[in-house]
Design a protein that fits this description.
By secondary structure, the chain is α+β, with helices and mostly antiparallel strands.
Length: 143
């Protein structure tokens, strides 16, 4: 009798564990190749935080300094397109180079209550602008 009760209990625990693992997983979306900065590789990971907001972690490697663009700009701004709430400025890419490598890496980590359907990056003179310029650098497809 103990054996017959133990098996369904263990199966239930296994199913619950698998369900929780699937719910907590993040989704990673890759950006399309850029014609403006063709060497750049970018991806964004989406997950839920403890408050049920969308956690966004974006990483870009081999991104040219915005001052080297034509026309030169001061920063890169990340935008999020939503289904019902329009386009949102979610922040500025923070760039760095390593002491041991000349490759540039840029990151953005933030949270938002809005549900994204697409991300894109523009080159701007001001990080706090409300609307993107026409100098599109990177974009994802809709997901």
């Amino acid at each position: 009798m103990r054996h017959s009760i133990k098996r369904p209990f263990l199966q239930g625990i296994l199913v619950l564990t698998m369900a929780l693992a699937l719910i907590s997983c993040s989704k990673t979306v890759r950006f399309q190749n850029s014609t403006v900065v063709p060497g750049a590789n970018a991806s964004v990971s989406l997950s839920k935080d403890d408050n049920k907001n969308n956690r966004i972690e974006m990483t870009v490697t081999n991104l040219a300094d915005p001052a080297r663009l034509s026309p030169p700009k001061k920063t890169y701004v990340v935008w999020m397109e939503t289904k019902n709430d329009g386009i949102k400025n979610i922040g500025q890419l923070i760039s760095e180079t390593s002491y041991f490598s000349s490759a540039r890496k840029a990151t953005l980590n933030t949270s938002t209550p809005f549900k994204p359907i697409r991300f894109f990056v523009t080159a701007e003179d001001n990080a706090s602008i409300q609307y993107p310029s026409s100098q599109l650098i990177l974009t994802t497809s809709e997901f």
